[in-house]
Amino acid sequence: MRKLISRLIAEDTALEVIGTARNGLEAVSMVRELKPDVVTLDIEMPEMNGLEALTIIMEHRPTPILMLSSLTQDGALATITALQNGAVDFISKPSGSVSFDLFKVKEELIFKIKQASQIPLRNLIVNNITVSKVDVGPKGNPQTGFSKKFDQILALGTSTGGPKALDTVITALPANFPYPLLVVQHMPPKFTKSLAERLNRLSRVRVVEAEDNQLVLGGTVYIAPGDYHMTVVQTNGEFRIRLHQEPQVQGHRPSVDVLFDSIAKCKSLKRHFILMTGMGSDGAKGMLAAKAAGAHSTIAESKETCIVYGMPRSAVELGCVDYTVPVHLITSKILEVTGVLKR
């Protein structure tokens, strides 16, 4: 695997492999010695696994790290943990942990290495400042439970760097947060389910992977499942989620634009739109249209904390952003614009 990955990377003349490690212990030592621009890290390794190595590297010499992930449920959960512990992105190995058809993802591998090399070190360090989290137990407001009556709704879009940013924002929401929040994170199937499950364990609000025809309830975060667009429709005074597999939009399914366009039509509600770290411009046009349709607020993550300042920048350039704030202040801004702080 080390030889194959090295060969694939070396085929691009802009990249050079300066070292290969047999296990996590070696990787930690070589990162200190060689000071690479980017590290690719497998999760399953002898002596010290990838998650342990990631933690030590990010603590002692923060470096953009890409995880190599197997497509199993266990692989997805470990990958989400790695992303929330400081890895910037991941590449799915096509057929499990020992795969010799990695050439199928060669283009993605090279593209993501180059993208990772552009991440400002300061942003990486700021994003790696973590607060230890524990399983918080029962969800929701004991007085009201999860109400289907609410007068505000929030939609959020993110991509590269998103799992870490979502961890920061969603785990800071209070247990009495009374509104639904719908999230598009660009990510394949299985990974979105693991993302939702992990966020649910760490958050005071309930977090679920969305299902088709699901009733939208307050105090709940809905993560769009990988490979499905997520929309909301109002029927008989209720709001329900609709999932569909219509063509990709700007190369994405789920698409932030599709979600934002759908929420913009829920005109009986105060609507709030948030764009966080991610490459490209998905969500910018949707935010612009939502603003024209009477959005109550539009929020973008500021350049100083974005792992990739693409999606928020596109919205800022369209002139449709009300508030630009660093990731650690987005939850405070959400509580302010929804009026929860005044309760």
UniProtKB/TrEMBL annotation:
Q: How is it modified after translation?
A: Phosphorylated by CheA. Phosphorylation of the N-terminal regulatory domain activates the methylesterase activity.
Locations listed in the record = Cytoplasm
Q: Which UniProt keywords apply?
A: Chemotaxis, Cytoplasm, Hydrolase, Phosphoprotein
Which SUPFAM superfamilies does this entry report, sorted A to Z? CheY-like, Methylesterase CheB, C-terminal domain
Q: What is its EC number?
A: 3.1.1.61, 3.5.1.44
Enzyme class, spelled out = hydrolase
Q: What reaction does this catalyse?
A: L-glutaminyl-[protein] + H2O = L-glutamyl-[protein] + NH4(+); [protein]-L-glutamate 5-O-methyl ester + H2O = L-glutamyl-[protein] + methanol + H(+)
Disulfide bond as a keyword?
no
Q: Where does it sit, as one GO cellular component term?
A: cytoplasm
Q: Which domain of life is it from?
A: Bacteria
Query: GO: which molecular function terms?
Result: phosphorelay response regulator activity; protein-glutamate methylesterase activity; protein-glutamine glutaminase activity
Q: Where is the CheB-type methylesterase domain?
A: 142-341
Per the record, residues carrying 4-aspartylphosphate are D42
* Principal localisation: cytoplasm
Active site positions, chain numbering: S159, H186, D282
Domain Response regulatory, first and last residues per copy: 1-108
Q: Which GO terms describe its biological process?
A: chemotaxis
Function of this protein? Involved in chemotaxis. Part of a chemotaxis signal transduction system that modulates chemotaxis in response to various stimuli. Catalyzes the demethylation of specific methylglutamate residues introduced into the chemoreceptors (methyl-accepting chemotaxis proteins or MCP) by CheR. Also mediates the irreversible deamidation of specific glutamine residues to glutamic acid.
Which family is this protein grouped under?
A: Belongs to the CheB family.
Quoted from the entry, the domain comment is: Contains a C-terminal catalytic domain, and an N-terminal region which modulates catalytic activity.
Q: Kindly provide the name given to this protein in its UniProt entry.
A: Protein-glutamate methylesterase/protein-glutamine glutaminase
**Lineage of producing organism:** Bacteria, Bacillati, Bacillota, Bacilli, Bacillales
